[in-house]
Specification:
Number of strands: 0
Radius of gyration: 18 Å
Structural class: mainly alpha
Number of helices: 10
Largest sheet: none
């Protein structure tokens, strides 16, 4: 029973990170400065690019190699599938969204939420191993992974709630939208624990699929916005900061 409680607590840790990041919206001023807006868009781009590489693609390659398969194949197929899927979603969205900024924001929320699913599965795999009675260090490793993902989720929660506030949503609504984007993570983790034998073989594809979806949003929506109008250099600075922060977190806590 104690092991189950440890696992439930650990699975919820990444969700807490997303919620904490979403709470940053409460510290925003009513009107966002244009310079800060450019920085935020760039920051979101950097976070998503780094997360795609270190949180998704590299773990997918490592998992495929450990499974005895061709290391790069699931990463390549999954990544291409994620891009193609988002292209189709983008075309459908254009038919229903009259506001370009609204579509852009919806795509951002969708891609970040989508990428939380395989991350949650990765956490679920670790805790499933712990519950199966592996070496005692498995609990420590699972907790470290959950904590690492939680810290990475802090900026991801912020890049959902803060743009929502910029689009006119009140702070409470923006906060809860950020929180809800992270709830898929513990949900995916619990499902993985229950269906461990089914999920593990396809996890490299799912990780890479999410990476492809995120890179599509960065290339299609965020980078063009970053370079529109003036102050595009600030967007590049924001991208650099976001990339470095996420890279360091992934390497240090991965």
């Amino acid at each position: 029973m104690e092991n189950i409680l440890y696992s439930i607590a650990g699975i919820l840790i990444p969700f807490i990170g997303t919620s904490l990041g979403s709470s940053f919206v409460f510290f925003m001023k009513k009107n966002m400065n244009e310079k800060f807006q450019k920085m935020l868009v760039g920051f979101a781009s950097g976070v998503m690019i780094a997360a795609s590489v270190w949180s998704l693609i590299l773990p997918a390659v490592e998992m495929a190699e450990n499974q005895g398969g061709i290391p790069w194949l699931p990463a390549a197929l999954g990544f291409a599938s994620g891009v193609i899927f988002l292209i189709l979603i983008n075309k459908i969205a254009k038919k229903f969204e009259s506001n370009g900024n609204e579509k852009k924001l919806n795509m951002l929320i969708f891609s970040v939420t989508l990428h939380n699913i395989p991350e949650g599965m990765a956490v679920g795999v670790c805790f499933a191993g712990f519950l199966a009675g592996n070496a005692g260090i498995a609990l420590f490793e699972a907790m470290i992974l959950a904590l690492g993902i939680a810290i990475q989720n802090i900026p991801e929660g912020a890049i959902i709630s803060m743009p929502l506030k910029m689009q006119g949503a009140n702070k409470k609504k923006a906060f809860w939208c950020g929180v809800l984007s992270g709830i898929v993570e513990p949900t995916a983790a619990f499902i993985t624990v229950l269906l461990i034998n089914i999920v593990v073989p396809i996890l490299p594809y799912l990780l890479s699929f999410a990476a492809g979806a995120m890179i599509f949003v960065v290339a299609e929506e965020l980078i063009p916005e970053m370079h529109s109008g003036k102050k595009s250099t600030l967007g590049v600075i924001g991208l650099t900061i976001g990339f470095i922060i996420m890279m360091v977190l992934d390497i240090a806590l991965g």
